[in-house]
Amino acid sequence: MVKIQMKTPLVEMDGDEMTRIIWDMIKKNLLLPYIDLKTEYYDLGLVKRDETDDQITVDAAEAVKKYGVGVKCATITPNAQRVEEYKLKRMYKSPNGTIRAILDGTVFRTPITLDCVKPTVRTWVKPITIARHAYGDIYKCTEYRVPTAGKAEIKFTDKNGNVTFNETVFDFKCPGVLMGMYNKDDSIESFARACFEYALSTKQDLWFSTKDTISKKYDHTFKDIFQDIFDADYKERFEEAGITYFYTLIDDAVARVIRSEGGFIWACKNYDGDVMSDMVATAFGSLAMMTSVLVSPTGNYEYEAAHGTVTRHYYKHLEGEKTSTNSMATLFAWTGALRKRGQLDGIDELVKFADDMENAALNTIQQGYMTKDLAGICELSDVHVLGTEEFIVKIRETYDTMVG
Length: 404
Known about the structure:
Layout: E1 4-5, E2 10-14, H1 17-31, E3 35-36, E4 39-43, H2 46-51, H3 55-67, E5 69-72, H4 80-86, H5 95-103, E6 106-111, E7 129-133, E8 142-146, E9 150-157, E10 163-172, E11 176-180, H6 185-202, E12 206-210, H7 218-241, E13 245-249, H8 250-259, E14 265-268, H9 270-284, E15 290-295, E16 301-304, H10 311-318, H11 328-345, H12 348-366, E17 369-370, H13 372-375, E18 384-385, H14 388-403
């Protein structure tokens, strides 16, 4: 078999725990037999991040800016327990947050749907895409554990050294906790334009929600920027496309989403999007059944699995126990990146390969061969539960049969 040739490398970002194991299985079974795979490799495993004081994460993000397309494995964001477990120098921030801040992009997450897996929300008949602002908020916040009574203040000093704002946040009478977070108008503008453009390209309605009635400066700024850009640049284009944009409070949006039939884009701030994308993914079937792509304003793309590193399965794997871990999101991260690389470089074979491999994965499940998480919720009568690597090998068999 003549392997598909690539022109430009992908930025490959390896990860942690069970998803790192799956990463290698996918490459060995589903990619390397068919593609002369060219990647610029970065190990974003927690050990290597600690060795480099997290510089490798920055380097990987800069590489995505250089080559235009990257694919990332799930990684650990360490808490206190992980710092102790891995003997880390410090508690590093989310690598996803670091990459998103450098690329200044928007994350679009859409469920991978199957005829044999019905959504938990019975009214949903179409996928719901979550557009998540991928900058600032809690992911780049400054935190402080208040040790004793005292006054917390927020102060802004302008570039000329003038204090233009100074207000008490809280007068602590006992220990507590404090957080400060921020965002930028230009990042919010990029987020808005990315959402409007994505809605036009997919011909879907766009919903946007914050809590501006409570956050009268922070959240209200998001609302105002979205509305200003829509009115100036997108209102007529949306009318011509027959799609709508509307804003509502996030609690109202949740109620509307649950009662809807799906088939729209729901734009959320960073933290809201993180939570709601997991909710949507689970309600459609599984956290492992979700595509995720970060799109930057300058046209860079980073594909990743939307879930974590599957720690529990990893520990079972280390003990020699059989696991049945769903690899669909990780596989679709690879196929998404390869498809985009093929589109940008004009390699139709690579685009077709990505389409065919995704169809092979979906057909494998529809034929009754799947991992344990899907077996418990699918509506097929004849189900075969496969182990982690068995499922990946079965996808290869389906692909080989499909392409002849």
